[in-house]
Amino acid sequence: MTSEMNAFKIDWSSRSKLRGPGDRSIGELLVRLRDRLAPKSQGISISYVDDRTMRKLNREHRGINQTTDILSFPAKPEKGAWQHLGDLVISLPMAEKMAKKLGVSRRREIETLVIHGFLHLCGHDHEKDAGDMLELQQNLEREFLSEEPLPMSLKRGRKPGSKVKKLKDGTRVVVTGRAATALVRKQKVKKVKAVKKAVKQKKTEQKPKRGPGRPRKVVAEQGPKASAKRVVHRRRSPRPRSGVIS
What we know:
- The protein is of the alpha/beta class.
- It folds into 2 domains: about 1-145, Collagenase (Catalytic Domain); about 165-200.
- The chain contains 6 helices and 7 strands, in the order ββαβαββαααββα.
- Strands 1-2-3-5-4 form a 5-stranded mixed sheet.
- A hairpin with a 5-residue loop joins strand 6 (about 165) and strand 7.
- The longest helix is centred in the last third of the chain and has 30 residues, at about 175-205.
- About 20% of the residues are buried.
C-alpha cells in the first residue's frame, strides 16, 4: 500500500498477524519528521513483520540471532535519483510486549520506534554518540506527540527464567513463575523416560530370540560329517544242558 502526503511517498507493507498503525495514525508524524530532519527526502518504507522474520533479518544484517523491536536500513540514492530515505522494519509482537510492559497502547510504542528509527535513517547512532540521539528523540516525542517520552533503556525481551511453551494447536506462549518451573520439570521427566526406553530397547535387541519349549542342545560335529558308531550285539551261546543224553 502506498500513500503520498505533501509529496512524501510512504510505502506500507505487513507480514504479521497483528495490525500496525497506518497513514491515519502516524502518517502525519512521518511527514513532520521528514520536514524537520530530512526535507529533501521523497519517500520512506514501513514494514510490519513478526518475530521470526525480524530474528532472521537481525541475524543476517547484524549477526545477532534474536529478535528486536526495530531495524533501520538507510538508503543512499545517487544525486538526481529518487531520494528514498530508507526502510523501517518493525516487529509488531515486540511492540505489543513492550506496550504492555509500559502500560501504553501499541500505537504509542510504535510512535516511539518510528522516531527512533527515523533518526537512524538520518545518520544518528546512539551506540557511538554521547547520548545526543536519545536526547533528540525525547525532545521530538515531547514536541510532536505532546507526551512524555517512553524509556528506551528498559530491557526488551523475555523475563529471566521464562520459558517458551508449545500448545496443542502449535502456537507458542511465554510462561513464567510456577508455570515455567513445572515446564522444566516436565521436560526433565520426559528426557529421563526417553533414556530409559532407549536402554531397555537396546538390551532387548541384544538378547537372542528363542522359540517355545526347551532349547535344543547343539552337538559339536567332528570333521565334515560325524559318522555314527555301529553297535554290534553279540549273540549269547546257549546254556549247556545236563549230562543225560537221550
